[in-house]
Amino acid sequence: MKLQEKQNQLLIKAELTELNEEFLKFGHNLHELKYAIRNESTSLNRKLISVLISVSIVIFCICYQCGIFDILSRHALGVRCIIPNNYFVWEATRPISDCQFCTNVTEPILLYNATREEFSKYAFSSKPIVIKRALLHWPAVKVFSFEFFKNLYNSLDDAYRSVDEECQFLHFRSNFISLRDVFAMSEARSNNAPGETPWYVGWGNCDPDVLEVMRKYYPKPHFLPADSELSAKEYVFMGYDAGATMHLDFINRLMWQAQLQGTKTWHLKPSPECETVCHSLTFLAEPGDAVLIDTRVWYHGTTIAPGEFSLAIQSEYG
After folding, report:
1. Are 172 and 243 in contact (CB under 8 A)?
2. Pairing between β-strand 129-132 and β-strand 290-293 as defined by DSSP bridges
3. 80 Ramachandran zone, left/alpha/beta (phi>0; psi -120 to 50)
4. Which residues of 24-50 are buried (b: 16+ CB within 10 A; e: fewer)?
5. Which keywords are on file for this protein (predicted)?
6. Closest CA relative to residue 115, chosen from 139, 136, 134
């Protein structure tokens, strides 16, 4: 075997020597030969780079046309619809608070089925408010459910498209990419059966036909100022266990949220510059409760009791 390898090496050497001699017969020298070899190697590298760039461009175009980047971005940015995609820019440039909104606030203001007159003095306050049992008379308390919204969206043309294109779907910690995926889950998972992965999602309802059906089951909260208008977008939050992560909302008006089914624990924190003078708050919202928070200044997040289904709707006023 070693003898054969040695013979092969001698044969290759002889062929290279013959090629060199032929090259020199044409009046070239060894320096030119070395330059030609290096130049060919460089040319091959350039061709390889060119091919790789071309292939990358083709792959990028295919991904763009198929909407893969859009799907990935929606999944990665699965935060509230009311938080824009430039959230980090907003956070970095938000005005520094003077902390008046949270000074001496240690718990939410509690009202019990307040009238419009009773609520009026708090209506535009930045202090958190919970109006207990204010909405128990709404038909939505008994009618709204996972199946209700599944049937609603499956029955209306363009309902899913409106969520995808006009108001962002919010997957939070779940593994869903779209609202269509949520309503395609198995019955066992939708009911949080043993062994199934818990889920919690939210989405904005922007389609007028969807809103028309929803609003058959609830009016404008009776305690809001008489000149308050219904928003063009209203939100649904529902699911089990993990709720929304801590964040601010960059919206134009104050918000109200109606807790319709199950309970939800709210966690509020002052902005970082106010942490030394203000307190964090935690409180429970129960079925029929209305929660009003200036989510533009209070960092807020929610959690759901293990195994309990929670459903709430949210809108703005002002």
Report:
1. yes
2. antiparallel
3. beta
4. eeeeeeeeeeeeeeeeeeeeeeeeeee
5. Membrane, Transmembrane, Transmembrane helix
6. 134
Question: In what helix (H) or strand (E) does residue 9 lie, and over which residues does it extend?
Answer: helix 2-25
CA pair distance 193, 199, nearest whole angstrom? 11
In the numeric block, the tokens 């902005």 are attached to: 271
> CA gyration radius for the chain?
32
Which single residue is written with the structure tokens 């959230």?
Answer: 87
**CA–CA distance, 245 with 258 (Å, rounded to integer):** 19
**Minimal CA–CA distance to 245: which of 291, 179, 193, 299?**
299
Q: Order the strands of the 299-303 sheet from edge to edge.
A: 281-285, 264-269, 299-303
**Residues facing residue 282 across a β-bridge:** 267
Domain ranges of the chain: 1-74, 97-317
Q: Mean pLDDT across the stretch 215-234?
A: 92
d(CA 299, CA 284): 16
Angstrom CA distances, 101 to 36, 274, 297, 301, stand at 76, 10, 8, 18
The Cα–Cα gap between 104 and 108 comes to 11
Q: CA–CA separation, 317 vs 134, rounded Å?
A: 17
CATH of domain 97-317: 2.60.120.650
pLDDT tens digits, one per residue of 155-211? 999 999 999 998 889 888 899 999 999 999 999 999 999 999 999 999 999 899 999
- Contact predicate 255/202, CB 8 Å: no
Give the pLDDT confidence of 226-241 residue by residue, as tens digits: 998 878 899 999 999 8
CA angle, 181 then 257 then 249, to 5°: 75
In angstroms, how far is CA 159 from the centroid of its own chain?
19
